[in-house]
Amino acid sequence: MPRYDIITIFPDYFSTLDISLIGKARTAGLVDIEIHDLRDHAEGVHKSVDDTPYGGGAGMVMSPEPWGKAIDEVTSNEIIHDLIVLTPAGKKFDQSMAEQFSKLEHLVFACGRYEGIDHRVTEYYGTQPTFRVHEVSIGDYVLNGGEVATLVMLEAIIRLIPGVLGNPESLAEESHTLTSNGEAIVEYPNYTKPAIWRELSVPEILLSGNHAAIKGYRHEEAIKRSQNRE
Q1: Distance CA 98, CA 153 (A)
Q2: Rounded to an integer, what distance in angstroms lies between the CA atom of residue 21 and that of residue 17?
Q3: Which helix (H) or strand (E) holds 100?
Q4: For residue 184, how many other CB atoms are within 10 A of its CB?
Q5: From CA 39, how far away is CA 15, in angstroms rounded?
Q6: In what order do the strands lie in the sheet with 106-110?
Q7: Full-model pTM
Q8: Residue 32 gets which letter from DSSP?
Q9: Reduced to 3 states, what is the DSSP secondary structure of residue 91?
Q10: Please, what sign has the CA dihedral across residues 192, 193, 196, 199?
Q11: In a 3-state reduction of DSSP, which class is residue 130?
C-alpha cells in the first residue's frame, strides 16, 4: 500500500481527503495518508516557522530546521522516499508525472507558504541516498501555499492506483492518457439522455449502434479538441 505524508501549517486544508473516491480508497486500505502539522516541530512560545530573508526583500521564508525535523520524523533509511516540494519554480505537473508518482511507495509533500521554504531543505535531501527530491508546480500562476497544489496532485495520483476507480477501463480513454501512437490527447465530448435538450441534439452517429464508426468519430473529436487547446 502506498503511503503519503503531507507536511503543512494548515492541516485542516486536507479534511476533503475523507470524502469521495480518495476517502473510499483510504477506508478500503488502498492508500495510507497522514497529515502532519509543521508547527509541532517549531520552537518557542509562538511556534514560528518563518523568518526574514537573507539579502533583504519582501515577505518571509520558511525556516529549514522545522522542515528537517518534520521530514526526518516521517522517513527512515529502509526505503526510498520521494520528497515533493511544491514551488512555482518546479517542473510542471502533468498526467505522465501523475502516473510515475502513482507507482511509488512513499511520497512526502512539503507544502510551503510565504516566499517558500529555505532552499537548503531541497539541497540537503537531494544529497541523501534514500531520497529523491522533486520540485513541482501545478501551473504558471502563484498560489498562497502548497496545500491546494498537493490536493490537485493527490486527486490525479490516487485515482490511478489499482482498485480506486470502480471501472478501471475508464482510465484508457481519459484526457491526457497516452495513445498507442504516443499521443497525449484530451477526451472526446460526452453525451447522455435525453437525445434532444433545449433543441440541441446528440450527434446522430452516437445513436447508430455502429461501434467502429463511433470509435472513429470519438477519436476525430478528441484530436480536434486537442488541437483547439494549443
Answers
A1: 7
A2: 9
A3: helix 95-102
A4: 13
A5: 18
A6: 32-37, 3-8, 106-110, 81-92, 131-137
A7: 0.86
A8: E
A9: strand
A10: negative
A11: coil
Contacts of 211 (CB under 8 A, 6+ apart): none
Q: Copy the grid coordinates of residue 156.
A: 490525479
User: Cα dihedral sign for 53, 56, 57, 59?
Assistant: positive
Hunting for cell 447522455 — which residue is that?
Answer: 192
Q: Do 14 and 35 contact (CB within 8 A), yes or no?
A: yes
* Residue type for position 156: A
Kindly give the confidence (pLDDT) of every residue in the chain, 230 residues in length, as a single tens digit, with 9 standing for 90 and above: 999 999 999 999 999 999 999 999 999 999 999 999 999 999 878 889 999 999 998 899 999 999 999 999 999 999 999 999 999 999 999 999 999 999 999 999 999 999 899 999 999 999 999 999 999 999 999 899 999 999 999 999 999 999 999 766 666 555 555 544 556 688 899 999 999 999 999 999 999 999 999 999 999 999 998 888 76
Residue 156 near residue 108, CB atoms below 8 Å = no
